[in-house]
Design brief:
Low-confidence stretches of chain B: none
Distance between the termini of chain B: 31 Å
Oligomer: heterodimer
Shape of chain A: globular
Radius of gyration of chain A: 13 Å
Largest interface: A-B, 26 and 24 residues
Order of helices and strands of chain A: EEEEEEEEEEEE
Number of helices of chain A: 0
Number of strands of chain B: 11
Mean pLDDT of chain A: 93
Number of helices of chain B: 0
Low-confidence stretches of chain A: none
Radius of gyration of chain B: 13 Å
Helix content of chain A: under 10%
Structural class of chain A: mainly beta
Strand content of chain B: over 45%
Chain lengths: ~110, ~110
Amino acid sequence: AQSVSQHNHHVILSEAASLELGCNYSYGGTVNLFWYVQYPGQHLQLLLKYFSGDPLVKGIKGFEAEFIKSKFSFNLRKPSVQWSDTAEYFCAVVGGSQGNLIFGKGTKLSVKP
Amino acid sequence: ETGVTQTPRHLVMGMTNKKSLKCEQHLGHNAMYWYKQSAKKPLELMFVYSLEERVENNSVPSRFSPECPNSSHLFLHLHTLQPEDSALYLCASSQEPLGNTEAFFGQGTRLTVV
């Protein structure tokens, strides 16, 4: 069965610090990968996605993620975080074209002004 | 606004009550989902409907009963719930197959069982 692991439960950074959130998945076949973000009091929204092609994916608000197939990883990065990035971040995977969207536990990011 | 609307936003119910959660999407999608979001746990996929037919039920207790009368509406009927069922219930929709697109989520219903 598919599963997704997010290594950090809560990350606290100061503004302008660099961010990297880890995500590993377990699925042996073709995968589609997603990062969703949930700002306080708001709905889950898509940050970025990888289906195929360039493994370095650019998303909204300066976020990017790199798919490393050999490591089964899809880590999220941002060079310089802002206070407004405070939110919970969820990595998710769909295994194959007919699979379901499976989420990790989420990582709460708190950015201090 | 995501195009997926859930009502009510908050619900408090007793263990003997019967209530229903409603989800509506205006995106023309043909698949809808119920997820449960509990603290410190991954979002749990509960039910999947594709073209109004249930295609997935991840061993959810029978006290949760989904209904999909058409491709735009999804309900979750609740009865004799337990306190541990308190959580945020999220509805999502997508265009099948999900492997080629993304899911859009509603804001959720915060359920408290007392």
